[in-house]
Amino acid sequence: MKVFSRTKRTPAGTAGTAGGGRHHRWQRTTRHLAPAKIAPSLLIGTACIFAAIIALFFLSPERDNTFSPATPATTSATTSAGNAPTGSASAPRPTGVVREVRAGLNAWAVLAEQKGWFAEEFDKLGARVTLVDRRVVGNAEAALFERGDLHIAERMAYPSLQHKANGFDFVIVWASGDCHPRRATTVVRADSPYKTLADLRGKRIGGHRLGCPYFATFEALRAAGLEWDTKLKKGDVRFVNITGAPAINALLAGEIDAYAAHPALPDVSALYKRGLVRDIETALPAGQYTGGGGRALVITTRRYADANPDLVRAYLRVYDRARRYIVEGERYEEAADALAKAYRIPREIALFGIRDESSLSLNTGRANADEAVAGLHKFLAWAVAKGDDLFGTKPLTREQVNEFVDRRFFEGGEFYVATGGKQHCSESSPADYKFQPTVVK
Fold first, then answer.
1. What is the pLDDT of residue 140?
2. Which residues of the chain fall below pLDDT 70?
């Protein structure tokens, strides 16, 4: 046996502290050691002990066999955007492995969890569902998807297309039809002197650049003869990119003059309820927002859809069941109770958010993939032509939009789920709609 040692040497003729004393060379020396003598019985005994430890670790019934989708253990179950799907309803799965579905939290999902409907669908697929409160996701939504901390969620078409334009490989697995103009409004303080959008010339409007109320206000301003004032071009109304609690505080403090908002979101509904704000306009009736950018979608990453199409289908089945239960059975109060408890908000605020025309969910689905693709193309073409500062600088090709809609989950596809039935009041976009102030009862 050879052992290596390092010996410090100094240049000849020095004492190690002068001249080149700081520059060391390392010498490798060797010496021979006699081989150790180990009794065979000791080797056999040691091997048996290690074998017993390994067996206890892997065969213990108390060992947790689940894993997090964010760990390296899941990489073998997913594919890149360019690979063929590896998962299907009939694909074999490792015994004892529990797949995870991290889905956005909302009223129907909370109720479905309480009813046990998620368990009914996903237990037989060896999977479990965890609901993620999207209020804490905010601007990090796309990053959470990429990390595996969020797998599937409902989003409007406008921000979903922004994700796509920013390079994230999302796919659409479900799409709604048109939405009501009240899905997005422009609000001012209750004591504000501004009565119409035209009064906001030279003022500041806050909004989330990744949120679709931004586009609804953008389109409504154009109809009123006003333009955003952005870094790309001068305009009449200055846009301030702000959202959540900071936006509400800025509005109430007078730091912004108006806010592009979703009335159905609890924080905004509470402002209406307390008489702190009023709206001065909705989205344009029968416009590009109500017929395109404001449509509800269900999105996931391509790699998750490819690896787990059966789980995506199961999610859509639970959605259809819960939506029908709430809308067709007029069980809004029951759903509101569930949401109020989950969000820790007043019951009347939760009820308004799911029953009003401004609601963001509970829509029936559009089965035709070609119709969904055509709607996206039409919306994007209008946005680019009218100077949208994101899609104008990050244009999406026709091929990117075409493959954005995953046809496996639409009519004729292997994993299609029909989500029809009675429509929610938020699904209509009457061309003759006249502005009506939002009232939270």
1. 74
2. 1-96, 136-139
Residue 131, beta-bridge partner list: 103
Is the CB of residue 296 less than 8 Å from the CB of residue 154?
yes
Determine whether domain 97-441 maps to CATH 3.40.190.10: yes
Please give the model's pTM, rounded to 2 decimal places. 0.78
Q: What is the pLDDT of residue 138?
A: 54
Q: According to the model, what pLDDT value does residue 134 have?
A: 72
What is the per-residue pLDDT across 120-177, written as a single tens digit (0 to 9) for each?
Answer: 999 999 999 999 987 755 557 888 898 899 999 999 999 999 999 989 999 999 999 9
Q: What integer pLDDT is reported at residue 95 of this predicted model?
A: 60
SS (H, E, C) the chain: CEEEEEEEECCCCCCCCCCCCCCCEEEEEEEECCCCCCCHHHHHHHHHHHHHHHHHHHHCCCCCCCCCCCCHHHHHHCCCCCCCCCCCCCCCCCCCCCEEEEEECCHHHHHHHHHCHHHHHHHHHCEEEEEECHHHCHHHHHHHHHHCCCCEEEEEHHHHHHHHHCCCCEEEEEEECCCCHHHCEEEEECCCCCCCHHHHCCCEEEECCCCHHHHHHHHHHHHCCCCEECCCCCCCEEEEECCHHHHHHHHHCCCCCEEEECCCCHHHHHHHHCCCEEEEEECCCCCCHHHHHCCEEEEEEHHHHHHCHHHHHHHHHHHHHHHHHHHCCCCHHHHHHHHHHHHCCCHHHHHHHHHCCCCCCCCCECCCHHHHHHHHHHHHHHHHHCCCCCCCCCCCCHHHHHHHECHHHCCCCCCCCCCCCCCCHHHCCCCCCCCCCCCCC
pLDDT at 233: 79
